[in-house]
Amino acid sequence: MIERISPGRDYALIAVFSAAVLTMPVWLAPIGAAYPDLMQKFAIFGIFAVGFNILFGLTGYLSFGHAAFLGVGSYTAVWTFKLLGMNAIPAILMSIVFSGVFALAIGYISLRRTGIYFSILTLAFAQMAYNLAYSVLTPITNGETGLRVLRSDPRLLDHLFGVNQGDGVLLARVFGFELHGYAGFYFCAVMLIIAFYVAIRITHSPFGMMLKAVKSNQNRMNYTGLSSRPYTLAAFIISGMYAGLAGGLLAVTDPLAGAERMQWTASGEVVLMTILGGAGTLIGPVLGAAIIKYFENIFSAFNDATLHNFFSFLPEGLQDVAASISGLFVGEGWQLTLGVLFMLIVIFLPGGIMEGIRRIGTLFRRGPGSGAEQRGARKGDAGAVPAPAE
Amino acid sequence: MSILQVTDVNKRFGGLQALDNVNLEVEEGAVHAIIGPNGAGKSTLLNCFVGRLVPDTGAVTFNGRSLLGIKPHEINQAGVSRVFQTPEIFEELSLIENIMIPAFAHRDGAFRLNAWNIVTGEKEIREKSEHILEDVDLIEKKDMLAGSLSRGDKRRLELAMCLVQDPKLLLLDEPTAGMSRADTNNTIDLLKRIGERKITKIVIEHDMHVVFSLAHKISVLAQGTVIAEGLPAEIKGNPKVQEAYLGGAHL
Predict the structure, then answer these.
(1) Under an 8 A CB cutoff, do A220 and B118 touch?
(2) What is the ipTM of this complex?
(3) Which domains occur in chain B, in start order?
(4) How far apart are CA B18 and CA A211, in angstroms?
(5) I need a surface site. Which of A130, A232, A235, A277 has the fewest CB within 10 A?
(6) B10-19: per-residue pLDDT in tens?
(7) Cβ–Cβ under 8 Å, residues A73 and A246
């Protein structure tokens, strides 16, 4: 059976989602993640993944270059700070607009191909953007040093309204609040909630249904009187704008933009987030983003001392063995843990964490034994496969 | 009045002359069957009507408008719908969504950025779609995934997807191939019923039972050429047809 759509359910979903996001400082405390720097990363990369999912989850087009839009968003935001002042609202608006224009150009060319060729084209564009940012575009990007806001920058609106910035580092502001610490987190959280609501509306709209049709059968779509190209291009631009918003927020919480944000590993990361959480689901990408950022920040911070502490209940010799084995998976080796987790998910739960949750839900609702039928019915949803080319 | 005119159409694939000066006229409101042995060029001809293939020479005119070089979605928007030999449906979507997509295409055109309305709020489209599903007896399954249907049901679903667009011309490529006798008869009844809507239909079919139950007019294609054309009774008795089509056996 398919998911039921109704306005009531959408409002319930966004209400629960908002509550969960805004109370993160409370319920994340027990797992040591309740500090603003990490939580705002959850929110920012959640936005990135939600947007990516509109393209990949709905239409099946796998872009390997979405980090380019993240970078464009960051650079645009920092330039807006430099020229207009430290207010965050114009900065993120400009980020969204510029990355949208950028996505229009890249999408227009890349969407001439489907499947692996599309992925390679997007990857090529992103790597081009990355290398250009380091080389010929240095006047705009400030190369390896990274782009930052200087006291000598015009910041027209700041001077116009006589905003006094004090002597410290220049920070982004909104309504007089400086966006660092918890203020920064709550600003990102509100953006995530808005972005998530927009994604719900898109997914449950006739437009969203057409995007699912693109993934399902482009041939039938064309013989049904629909032109699939503008639909995929619109999805590409929308997801590029989401990435731009995320990039803008990265600059808002830390007014500095560097080219490494556009590297292909960053593009790969958002693919992992989406698949890990569950491509094509609404919540999945947010979960995937949070999990990856959690691993990156918490697991990488473990060191030998923490491990010995953890295994202190074991006898001396065993303690060393346990610590050195598990040491491979934490600290600098945190990506090993992530890799193993990712493999397990893809092999056993191709629909991501959301499929796992759904299966558990089915077990509880109908008792054991009905899981197999559910799996069969949802097979098409596994969805890591790009739409076939004609 | 003829709704579709095919004039001197030729199509060559390498050394094979797939269509050899085909001429055809389809009357508005009629059921026109195209029969012929395997490899006669029937599907090639149909592909020229929907923009999948472009003839090397010749003209295809629908409602006074040339269909050559026009994209498939534009041909559909002009009023031509097609049922494929192997059902082309949206397997990962529910039945009702499968019907609503063509219904939206019919109402909104080839593209519309309708991203803020909720699907379930589109009452008119929904009711129309449910109505069509009732017509083809699939209404109880409307929330199932289309991929889980039997082959016969998939064909009926695809037919419903075409009907919801109120096409002027409906192209049916072997609508009963691989069906049981009972399913075939159901499909014949269904096609007769929708015949009341005055939709012009072109049927490609191997099953003579289906052809003679439905067709008003029959064209016989062999080796890329129309070798005979006429009313079912005339075709039945035509020795040339029996020779080409059945190798001399009697119908």
Answers:
(1) no
(2) 0.91
(3) 1-79+167-251 (3.40.50.300), 94-166 (no CATH)
(4) 37
(5) A130
(6) 999 988 899 9
(7) yes
